[in-house]
Amino acid sequence: MDKLRIMSVFGTRPEAIKMCPLVRELAAREGVESLCCVTAQHRQMLDSVLEVFSLKPDWDLDIMTPRQTLSTITSKCLTGMDEAIDTLKPDMILVHGDTSTTFAGALSAFYHQVPIGHVEAGLRTYDKYSPFPEEMNRKLVSSLADLHFCPTANNRGNLLREGVTGSIFVTGNTVIDALKTTVREDYRFSTDELNHLPYSEKKILLVTCHRRENYGEPMRNIMLALRQLAEENRDVELVYPVHLSPVVREAVDRYLRGAPRVHLIDPLPADEMHNLMARCYLVLTDSGGLQEEAPALGKPVLVLRRETERPEAVEAGTVKLAGVVQDDIVTMAQRLIQDRNAYAAMAHAVNPYGDGQACRRIADAVLWHFQRGERPADYQG
Fold first, then answer.
1. Residues 131 and 105 in one domain
2. Domain count, the chain
3. Given 161, 183, 186, 202, which is the most exposed site by the fewest CB atoms within 10 A?
């Protein structure tokens, strides 16, 4: 029996963190040839993750250009995928989440009549402009996919209510699988500044902020809130790995650079970020992935957005929506800095996103689709 050629397509750092463990799980299956196609929508940040997981792509579109737009990303992915699919001839294409690479990869697979598996399916805010363009990318891929791998039962419920066709599985989130391979107590950072932070003497606040819907006034408010937290709390230090987006860097330079007890560093490789998260006190972020990763490490998260497509963590108590208003962000962060009971309630809440077996379930489901194994049981989170 010929091996199944399963091609995973991704292009950004967050996708890579969640897909690399799956690429490796598929490669370990006797009946599968695991292929990897990257678009390099984020070149430098993508490469750092590939290095952490010792993964060499079978195909690299290398599309990134300065000041790229959503249209250029999508069109270059779409046209570049033609040659990749024609050459590698996959039996199934797996895409992840909600990026422009995800949408273009799924659309190209559809054009070539190749079955599609959507990893991290079913997340919704039901506001097509927030997160932008991610919300619509998710919904469009849901219409194209044949297999839907949902992190939670709530995600599956979203798809069922929408009448989505195809086979739906609840798998947990592959990011929990990734954390099991990257976080270590004896870890030493290659970014030496991180080795010398006063983790035991001060409260280290890990910050990220980069989403397109926060560009402009929301980002200004967030930056001013971060500066106020640093200025008003001598027992706090902020660590901010600054996204490479010129828009983000301009805002950081204008509002945060020079603030006391603020460490502005370059983006971190996945293993560095995970280990920093494991040692920090609190996470403030507009990232989707960190809303899943930090709770798994027992770290409270304040989400710097108006809504989240990950309501499970809010319901579990590990995540709170802080919004994009300066006073609101400061008030919520101050409470967690100063109130031990409020902090403990969030830190000890149960993480709803998985048991580290998502990749195994997804690989089993792929084999089941091709009648080469049993259907996996859903994750009971």
1. yes
2. 2
3. 186
Q: Does residue 181 lie in a domain region?
A: no
CA distance linking residue 6 with residue 370, whole number of Å: 11
Q: Are 307 and 128 in contact (CB under 8 A)?
A: no
CB 376 within 8 A of CB 364: yes
Q: Token pair for residue 1? A: 């029996």
Summarised one tens digit per residue, pLDDT across range 84-111 is 999 999 999 999 999 999 999 999 999 9
DSSP state string for 32-84: EEEEEEE--SSHHHHHHHHHHTT---SEE-----TT--HHHHHHHHHHHHHHH
The total of other beta-carbon atoms located within 10 Å of residue 3's CB is 12
List, in order, residues 6 or more apart from 177 with CB less than 8 Å away. Answer: 21, 22, 25, 354, 356, 357, 358, 359
Please indicate, yes or no, if residue 54 is contained in any of the structural domains: yes
Q: In which residue ranges of the chain is pLDDT below 50?
A: none
| pLDDT at 288 (0 to 100) | 86
Which tokens belong to 137?
């990318």
Q: Are residues 157 and 27 in the same domain?
A: yes
Closest CA relative to residue 9, chosen from 86, 70, 100: 100
- Residue identified by tokens 């060499």 is 56
Report pTM. Answer: 0.87
Give the range of the structural domain holding residue 126, as residue numbers without chain letter.
4-173+354-370
Tell me, yes or no, whether 57 and 130 share the same domain: yes
- pLDDT of 362 reads 98
- Per-residue burial over 63-84, b if 16 or more Cβ lie within 10 Å, else e, is bbeeeeeeeebbebbbebbeeb
Is 182 inside any structural domain? Answer: no
> 343 and 267: one domain?
yes
Q: What residues contact 83, with CB distance under 8 A and at least 6 apart? A: none
Contacts of 255 (CB under 8 A, 6+ apart): 220, 223, 224, 227
